[in-house]
Amino acid sequence: MTEVIYEGGCLCGAIRYRASANPTRCMICHCQTCRKHSGGPCLSFVHFPVESFSWLGAKPKRFRSSAFAERGFCAACGSTISMHEEVLADRVQIALGSLDQPERVRPDDHVWTKSRIAWFDISDNLPRFPGNSPAVPSKALDD
Ligand SMILES: [Zn+2]
Ligand SMILES: [Zn+2]
Q1: How close is the Cα of 46 to the center of ligand 2, in Å?
Q2: Residue 31 CA: which ligand is closest?
Q3: How far is the CA of 128 from the centre of ligand 1 (A)?
Q4: Domain count across the chain
Q5: Ligand nearest to the CA of 76
Q6: How many angstroms separate the alpha carbon of residue 101 from the centre of ligand 2?
Q7: Better-predicted residue by pLDDT, 1 or 79
Q8: Which domain covers residue 60, as residue numbers?
Q9: With 60 as the cut, is the pLDDT of residue 129 above it?
Q10: 75 C-alpha to center of ligand 1: Å?
């Protein structure tokens, strides 16, 4: 059996990480908090099982963005890296764009589409949810 490895990191390279399992989930979030965190029109997070995941260099600096979650970024270059939710402690949520090969991951759905920028047109056939997806018990974005 071939070993599964995903790697990625921040823009400056201070943060590097490796996951040795396939992601359990990938969502594209259209909420305002994700927009502010990333600077982009939306933000996609890939969920890796926590036991498969390791930080290789510096760890992300964390900012508490709500009562339920912290946002991780590189203290040196500011890259958006991760999200950490107490209710989802079984996984590490990694910003899709920080992966070295983001094309290997397929998104499952769009969440918080009620906050989507009107001109940001979605033309795929993925499920869309106005708020959180029922796939996860997340409360992190519900504020
Ligand atoms: Zn960096
Ligand atoms: Zn969001």
Answers
A1: 12
A2: 2
A3: 32
A4: 1
A5: 1
A6: 22
A7: 79
A8: 6-115
A9: yes
A10: 7
For residue 51, how far is its CA from the centre of ligand 2 (angstroms)? 24
Residue 137 above 80 pLDDT? no
Task: Indicate whether 124 belongs to any domain.
Answer: no
> Which of the ligands is closest to the CA of residue 85?
2
Q: Is residue 69 part of a domain?
A: yes
CA 45 to centroid of ligand 2, rounded, Å: 9
pLDDT at 143 over 60: no
For residue 57, being part of any structural domain is answered with yes
Tens digits of residue pLDDT in 71-125: 999 999 999 999 999 889 999 999 999 999 999 999 999 999 999 999 999 999 9
3-state per-residue secondary structure call for the chain? CCCCCEEEECCCCCCEEEECCCCCEEEEECCHHHHHHHCCCCEEEEEEEHHHEEECCCCCEEEECCCCEEEEECCCCCCEEEEEEHHHCCEEEEEHHHECCHHHCCCCEEECHHHCCCCCCCCCCCCECCCCCCCCCCCCCCC
Question: What CATH number does residue 46 fall under?
Answer: 2.170.150.70
Ligand nearest to the CA of 114: 2
Q: Is residue 136 part of a domain?
A: no
**pLDDT higher than threshold 50 for residue 65:** yes
- Ligand 2 centroid–CA 2 distance in Å is 34
